[in-house]
């Protein structure tokens, strides 16, 4: 079959199983990676999707055929497989997941053993070599038994040891795993730490029957109601593989990633003696500079994507990294973006301040912020962006990642999604009136360009 180059994205590999992503293609991906890394050791794991185990088996066979060494961490959450690669000092950790996408999707996230992700260029190099193999057959794949490991006990012990203040905290939480991979780790770990856990959608179901695997305001409707009904201290909703977590306060209000990130960033910065750098993507709130600079810290902006915040946390010795989609990085633990750290760190703050989440959030200065997704095919979306860059030159836009135009009282960002056929428009302003003005104007401009 002809390999679709669009499955190779800036941060990972994604496609529809049986259509753009098959077991044969995954074996070729493994073969290319293995051939480039002879005798190096990999950890491979997969999320709970129906196609996960089959794709993992073929990835492993391809890796071994190419000359790499492999251990299989099983079906689990993202953080557990990445922890295995980090703890066991493997060369790289490869995780089969469709992340927040619908059930028919799957893909591959690629990280080095220390938690640093493969760059876009490295993924494109793999793409080019896999496409060269398109018309070829790989030599017969190994059929010997795959070595399997189980590191969950060590993973839990590590997290518990890093948050000793949380032991027997007795906070009541509502845990929404969305029937995804976090069902396998979050309920058990949080109960072991001492939370009073009310479970919601904590049974594995690869069809995601109760809500989409993407936690959003709409998809957490039941969770938000449940938090209030249970008189819980807060709620949390994980995405399908467990690298993002959305927080609900005790009043049933969704806390945006900007707010969660600013609270975490300020707390971590205050408790850091010498490290003063916070990493944030261009789409994060302009409030961040106000809060971090007031503490003697510095914000370094990067393009959108967990790859960029992790790479820059490593490069600049950052204490914290964040992006608006919900990825958070806390290098004091490890570089990779395990979402379990978010509620654990937030609980540490709640206990230290002896305040409700809503009270902690109310201490922040708020600016109106909204983000919108406009459907646009993978084949067309980059052309639309290039046209907008030419048409909007008069605004002297920042082109670090997409097109960002700053005003005295707000900004807009138009950027192409690297993982979906979408162009996003983000808008922030000091007043609701200014936000509505910017939203209306640039939504119209973007729509007109897409429809050409």
Distance between the termini: 32 Å
Q: How does the major sheet shape up?
A: 5 strands, mixed
Helix/strand/pairing class, anyone? alpha/beta
The number of helical segments is 14
Measured on Cα atoms, how large is the radius of gyration?
22 Å
- Residues in helix, %: 25-40%
Could you characterize the architecture of this molecule?
- The protein has four domains: 5-151, Alpha-D-Glucose-1,6-Bisphosphate, subunit A, domain 3 (Alpha-D-Glucose-1,6-Bisphosphate, Chain A, domain 3), CATH 3.40.120.10; 167-255, 3-Layer(aba) Sandwich (Alpha-D-Glucose-1,6-Bisphosphate, Chain A, domain 3); 257-335, Alpha-D-Glucose-1,6-Bisphosphate, Chain A, domain 3 (3-Layer(aba) Sandwich), CATH 3.40.120.10; 369-451, TATA-Binding Protein (2-Layer Sandwich), CATH 3.30.310.50.
- It has 14 helices and 18 strands.
- The protein has helices at residues 23-36, 52-66, 78-87, 120-132, 152-162, 186-193, 221-229, 257-270, 287-293, 306-316, 341-353, 357-362, 378-391, 432-451, and strands at 12-16, 41-46, 69-75, 92-96, 105-112, 172-176, 196-200, 234-238, 245-248, 254-255, 277-281, 298-302, 320-322, 328-329, 369-375, 403-407, 410-416, 422-429.
- The strands form four sheets. The chain has a five-stranded mixed sheet, sandwiched between helices.
- α9 links the parallel β11 and β12 (298-302).
- It starts with 11 loop residues before the first strand and ends with a helix.
């Amino acid at each position: 079959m002809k390999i679709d180059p669009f499955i190779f994205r800036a941060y990972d590999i994604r496609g529809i199983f049986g259509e753009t992503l098959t077991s044969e293609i995954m074996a070729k991906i493994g073969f290319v990676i293995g051939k480039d890394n002879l005798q190096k050791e990999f950890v491979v794991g997969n999320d709970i999707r129906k196609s996960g185990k089959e794709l993992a088996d073929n990835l492993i066979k391809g890796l071994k055929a190419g000359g790499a060494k492999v251990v299989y961490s099983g079906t689990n959450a993202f953080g557990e497989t990445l922890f295995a690669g980090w703890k066991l000092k493997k060369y790289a950790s490869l995780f089969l997941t469709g992340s927040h996408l619908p059930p028919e999707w799957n893909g591959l996230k690629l990280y080095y053993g220390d938690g640093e992700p493969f760059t876009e260029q490295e993924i494109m190099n793999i793409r080019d070599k896999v496409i060269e193999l398109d018309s070829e057959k790989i030599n017969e794949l190994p059929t010997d038994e795959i070595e399997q490991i189980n590191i969950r006990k060590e993973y839990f012990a590590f997290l518990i040891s890093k948050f000793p203040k949380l032991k027997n905290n007795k906070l009541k939480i509502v845990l929404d795993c969305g029937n995804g991979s976090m069902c396998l780790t979050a309920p058990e770990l949080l109960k072991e730490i001492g939370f009073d856990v009310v479970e919601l959608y904590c049974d594995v179901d690869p069809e995601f029957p109760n809500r989409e695997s993407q936690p959003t305001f709409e998809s957490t409707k039941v969770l938000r109601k449940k938090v209030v009904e249970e008189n819980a201290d807060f709620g949390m909703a994980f995405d399908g593989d467990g690298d993002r977590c959305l927080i609900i306060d005790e009043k049933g209000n969704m806390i945006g990633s900007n707010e969660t990130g600013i609270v975490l960033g300020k707390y971590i910065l205050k408790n850091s003696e010498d490290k003063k750098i916070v990493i944030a993507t261009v789409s994060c709130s302009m409030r961040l500079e106000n809060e971090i600079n007031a503490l003697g810290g510095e914000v370094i902006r990067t393009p959108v994507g967990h790859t960029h915040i992790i790479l820059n946390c490593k490069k600049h010795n950052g204490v914290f990294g964040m992006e608006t989609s919900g990825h958070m990085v806390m290098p004091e633990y490890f570089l990779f973006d395990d979402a379990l750290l978010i509620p654990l760190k937030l609980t540490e703050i709640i206990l230290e301040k002896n305040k409700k989440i809503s009270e902690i959030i109310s201490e922040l200065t708020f600016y109106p912020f909204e983000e919108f997704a406009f459907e646009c095919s993978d084949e067309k979306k980059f052309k639309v962006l290039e046209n907008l860059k030419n048409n909007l030159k008069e605004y002297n836009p920042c082109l670090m990642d997409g097109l960002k135009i700053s005003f005295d009282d707000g900004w807009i960002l138009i950027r192409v999604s690297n993982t979906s056929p979408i162009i996003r428009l983000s808008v922030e302003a000091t007043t609701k009136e200014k936000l509505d003005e910017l939203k209306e104007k640039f939504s119209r401009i973007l729509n007109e360009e897409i429809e050409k």
